[in-house]
Design a protein that fits this description.
The protein is built from 14 helices and 20 strands. With 460 residues, the chain is of the alpha+beta class. The structure holds flavin-adenine dinucleotide.
Length: 460
């Protein structure tokens, strides 16, 4: 069927090749399946394959080749750049693939590609185990793992990719392959940080660690006037803190809640999310610093810590983000990002400051495609708003942040945080040496660039 076109005569035949549902425009469930996290993305695939297993992934890849239609791959649909969905092409929707098997003895979890972090954490925490996972429960394990994967446990156990022990992937020519340290080791190296460039991953296997189930976490809030002083203290404290201390800091809008004084509600405030995976007393220095107007920290289950940022990142809003790595979070930079933070517009906008360090400094750089030299902090700006009318001012605010950061930024923010997708940005994510190795891998596994709707590594 080379040169196949999708029309009324071919679709009924093609349906027989798939176990899962096929959705066309107008079908029930079509709009739900094509909807992704970022409401700025409104694309209409010609066909959506609701995959029921690896066989559907194989059939979908072969169909894309036959029809020469673009192929998009959706895990959890959280990619802010919206690559998971395409216009007029074929979309492989992996979200029905929800199986998770936990082996508590071996401390391994095997999960299918449609699982989200909320689902993964629930399954592993039933055994008191976890691995580094995304900070929002609705994020997919698939895109996050392939793009490095940053989470609250990273200062103890590294990024999510560092905890990947194997993956099963369908290649551009429809072969199901396994990648681990012992099988297709070159592919395994590239899957850990190189994104969805080499094929469609159907299963991920992760190393698990004893975590919780109770840990200490929450949020502390200070008026913005104290932010400069508190952020400097926080920076110095966390840079010297043991690996069990994690979290981040942010300028956010204070919610209209009882714990927030009326005069601060709806205003930008300074927040620290401190987390201790060890002794709760380790959080005392930051809890006692300055005069916060709310200290909402305490013992809580790890699965609740994983939900701390959910309310600030709801589905169905428009998103425009940037992130940069810096080696030194200098006083000058602290002042700059806080001044910019005062300009938050929508109640969901935020400037987020993420300390790295701990295990991330010790994991051998050569083990994965991830750029090890990105820096000591990731600084983020999140524009998240509701209506089309706000788009111009929100995007200008985020772009301005990008300009301000230019003199300080170092290349190497992992793909998961890099919403920009230009070729130079992708190359800089890895550095020249690792990029060249990734291009060689692309030449081997996808020389025709079938998997190009992503932060693309182009074959030579
Ligand atoms: C609210 C929010 C919070 C976030 N928090 C974090 C965080 O804490 N840490 C972090 O590291 N990142 C975070 N991210 C970024 C997130 O990890 C990336 O956007 C990631 O790509 C999301 O994965 P997904 O499967 O949900 O996305 P999707 O949009 O479904 O996929 C993104 C891309 O990944 C590729 N892909 C997806 N599944 C597969 C597969 N099975 N095989 C091959 N390629 C595939 C495709 O190229 C696809 O276009 C966050 C994003 C959002 C919107």
């Amino acid at each position: 069927m080379a040169g196949t076109t999708l029309d009324e005569s071919t679709i009924p035949v093609i349906r027989g090749r798939f176990e899962g549902e096929l959705l066309e425009p107008g079908d029930g469930g079509y709009d739900e399946a094509r909807t992704v996290f970022n409401a700025m993305i409104d694309r209409r695939p010609r066909l959506i394959v609701r995959c029921s297993g690896a066989a559907d992934v194989v059939a979908g890849i072969l169909l894309a080749r036959e029809t020469s239609l673009p192929l998009a791959v959706k895990g959890g649909g959280h990619g802010v750049n919206g690559h998971a969905v395409c216009d007029d092409g074929i979309m492989l929707d992996l979200s029905p693939l929800k199986r998770i098997d936990v082996d508590p003895e071996a401390r391994i979890a095997r999960a299918q590609a449609g699982v989200t972090w909320g689902e993964f954490d629930a399954a592993t925490q039933a055994h008191g185990l976890a691995t580094t996972g995304g900070r929002i429960t609705t994020t997919g394990i698939a895109g996050l793992t392939l793009g490095a994967g940053s989470g609250w446990l990273e200062r103890m156990y590294g990024y999510t990719s560092h905890n990947l022990v194997a993956a099963e992937m369908v290649t551009a020519d429809g072969q199901l392959v396994r990648a681990s340290e012992d099988e297709n080791a070159d592919l395994f190296w590239g899957l850990r940080g190189g994104g969805g460039n080499f094929g469609v991953v159907t299963h991920f296997e992760y190393r698990l660690h004893e975590v919780g189930p109770m840990v200490t976490g929450g949020m502390i809030l200070w008026p913005l006037e104290q932010a400069g002083e508190v952020l400097r203290f926080y920076r110095d404290w966390i840079e010297a803190a043991p690996d069990e201390i994690s979290g981040g800091a942010a300028v956010v809008t204070a919610p209209p809640e009882g714990s927030v004084p009326t005069e601060l509600q709806g205003k930008p405030v300074f927040a620290v999310i401190p987390i201790s995976f060890g002794d709760p007393e380790l959080l005392r220095p930051i809890r006692e610093y300055g005069t916060p107007f709310a200290d909402l920290t305490g013992p809580m289950p790890y699965v609740e810590v994983q939900k701390l940022m959910d309310a600030g990142s709801p589905w169905g809003f428009r998103n425009y983000w940037k992130a940069e790595a810096v080696q030194e979070f200098s006083d000058e930079l602290v002042d700059l990002v806080l001044e910019h933070g005062k300009g938050v517009g929508s109640p969901f906008d935020a400037c987020f400051f993420q300390p790295l360090g701990g295990a991330l400094d010790r994991i051998p750089a050569a083990a994965t495609a991830i750029n090890p030299s990105a820096g000591k902090w990731f600084l983020h700006v999140f524009g998240i708003w509701e209506t089309e009318e706000e788009a111009e001012s929100e995007m200008a605010w985020v772009r301005r942040w990008g300009e301000l950061m230019e003199p300080y930024a170092r290349a190497g923010v992992p793909l998961t945080f890099s919403a920009d997708t230009g070729d130079e940005r992708v190359r800089a994510t890895f550095g020249d040496e690792k990029y060249a190795r990734l291009v060689a891998l692309k030449d081997k596994y996808d020389p025709e660039n079938l998997f190009r709707l992503n932060q693309n590594i182009k074959p030579s």
